[in-house]
Specification:
The protein has about 190 residues and is an alpha+beta fold. The longest helix is centred in the last third of the chain and has 23 residues, at about 165-185. The strands form 2 sheets. Strands 1, 2, 3, 4, 6 and 11 form a 6-stranded antiparallel beta sheet that branches. The protein contains 3 helices and 11 strands, in the order H-E-E-E-E-E-H-E-E-E-E-E-E-H.
């Protein structure tokens, strides 16, 4: 086998391996519900399921209800802890999970969080040693209270796999190498 042909096949094989092994993030929609001492919040959550198949980086929340009635829209989401540290300005990565562990999430109607709800993880900065839940007036006006895992649910509503840019580039590289190899074969 000539050196050029061998090199062509080696590059093609490496490209296929790279494209096949690239991590895939799963953009998905989830059904959310939590029942606090004041009532039940439900919503549709859009986010990216991380490679641990548990953690969800939240990108938006919609269709919120409180005790079955439509509740105000919450277009501002972020990390509850980061938002507190920033002076109650919604910021940081909002995190929920399928199993209810590691929640750090706040959803608000304004950037300075006049109303909404959130889950605060244990931390030394604020001083809580357990997970907490809190909500504003449209969501039952709860002061921070203990998070109850049995009252939490986040389930996939339907997952669409979205390839990361590296995967797309890898697949395009496979096509390019294939055309290159084919072109060299025709030249002979």
């Amino acid at each position: 086998m000539p050196l050029k042909s061998s090199l062509c096949y080696s590059v093609a094989l490496a490209t296929v391996a790279t494209a096949t092994l690239a991590p895939v993030a799963s953009a998905a929609t989830f059904n959310f519900s939590y029942t606090s001492s004041a009532g039940t919040i439900t919503a549709t959550v859009d986010g990216t399921l991380q490679l641990d198949n548990n953690t969800v980086f939240v990108s938006s929340i919609s269709n919120t209800t409180f005790n079955g009635s439509p509740a105000p829209a919450l277009p501002f989401i972020g990390s509850y802890l980061d938002s507190i540290l920033a002076g109650v300005v919604v910021t940081g990565q909002a995190v929920l999970s399928l199993d209810g562990a590691g929640l750090d999430f706040v959803a608000c109607n304004t950037t300075n969080c006049i109303d909404g709800f959130g889950f605060l993880p244990p931390n030394a900065i604020v001083g809580n040693t357990t997970d907490l839940f809190a909500s504003g007036s449209a969501y039952g006006s709860t002061l921070p209270e203990l998070f109850v895992l049995a009252n939490y649910s986040l389930t996939p509503a339907g997952t669409t796999t979205v390839p990361e840019p590296a995967t797309v580039l890898g697949l395009l590289s496979v096509a390019g190498v294939g055309l290159l190899c084919k072109g060299r074969k025709l030249e002979k």
